[in-house]
Amino acid sequence: MIIEGPEHVQELPRQETWPAGACGSGPGILHDEPRPETGLTDAYGRVINYLRLSVTDRCNFRCVYCMPPGGAMYTPHAEILSYEEILRLCRLMSGLGIRRFKITGGEPLCRKDAVSFIRRLKNVPGVEQVTLTSNGTLLAPYVEELADIGVAGINISLNSLNPEHYAAIGRTQARPERILPVMAAAGKSGIKVKINVVPMRKFNDGDLHDLTRFALEGGYALRFIELMPVGLGATCKGVPPREIRNMIEKCFGALSALDDAAGNGPSDNFRVSGYAGSIGFISAVSNKFCRQCNRVRLTSGGFLKSCLHHNNGVELKPLLRGGAEDEEIVAALKEAVRQKPPEHEFKRAAKEKSARRFLMNSIGG
Ligand code: SAM
Ligand code: SF4
To answer: Which ligand is nearest to the CA of 105?
Structure first.
C-alpha cells in the first residue's frame, strides 16, 4: 500500500533531470558520473543506499525539539516490528543495494536486546556499515560489545556541557559529564564518535563555544544540526549556521573544508589548524541538500518513509504480517523509493500544523 502526502498525489514520472527551481540553481542532471548498479534509484536518479532504522519510538529523554514533556503517544508493542521482521526487510533492502544502516529511535538502547539485534544486522550479507545514534546515557555497558560487532560509528547527542542547560533541553536528570567517559571509551575501542548538537536560542546558543573547544581539543567530530521544523522542532528557534561559523572562526581560527566524501551524507565538514577534532554543519533548512539525498527511513512501526518532511512512503507491516512473498515486498520497496519527493519544503511548511504531524522520535532523525 503506497501512502502519499496530499501534496504528492500525482504519479511521479521517471525523470533524469531536476524540476525547475528545485534545490537551488545549477544544471538539472543529478549524476555526471556513471551510477553504480542498484535496484533502488528514485525518479530523480538518486541512488538510495542508506537506511535510517528506528527500532523504537520510546526514549528516556524528552528533548524540547523532539518530544512533548509528558512523552509521546507511543506505538503499542504489538505494532512495533519484531527484530525478525526488521531483519527480513534489511535482507531484502541489502539485496537492493542498501549498504549502510543507522540504528536510531527514540533512544535505540531503550529497546531490549538492541545490541544483539545490531550484531545480527551486521551479519546480513551485503551490509557494509552499521552505525548508531544515541543520547549516550545507556551506552556504557555496551561499548565493548558494539566495538566487537564492528559498529563503525556512534553519534552522541550532546547539546550542552552545562548540566542545567543539558537537563533543560532533554528534560532529563541525566548529566553531560557522565557521557564524556563513555564517549572516550567508545573512541578508544575504535568506534568513530561524533557529537550531534542542535543549536537553539535560549537553550544552548551560549554553549556552542565550549562544545566547539571540547570537540576540537578532544579529537571529536562535532556536527551542528540545524533545527528542522519537524514535529516539535517547529516550536523552537534555531541558530543560523553562519552565526556559529563566524563565532568559530573568530575564536578558534579559519575553517578549512575537509573532503570526506566517504561519509554518509549531508555534513559540510571543516578542520581548524592546530586541533585534532573537526566541525560539521548539517544545514537542511538553510542549505538544502535534497539533490544528494541517498536515504530512506524505516519507523519502528514499519512505515518506510522516503523523505523526512513529506508523508510519502509505504506501510510494510501489513505485507510482513499478511504473508507477502519477498517479491511483493521488494516491489513495494522499489515503488516507495520511486515516489520519493524531489525535496523537502521545510520553509513553507514551518508555519503549518501539518509540519508537526510526525514527531521526530518516531522517525529517527
Ligand atoms: N535518541 C537519539 C539521539 O537523540 O541521538 C536518536 C534519535 S534522535 C531523533 C536523532 C537525531 O535527531 C538527534 O541528533 C536529534 O538531536 C535530532 N533531532 C531530533 N529532532 C530534531 C529537529 N527537530 N531538528 C533537528 N534535529 C533533530
Ligand atoms: Fe529522545 Fe533523541 Fe528525541 Fe531527545 S532527540 S527525545 S534523546 S529521541
So the answer is: 1
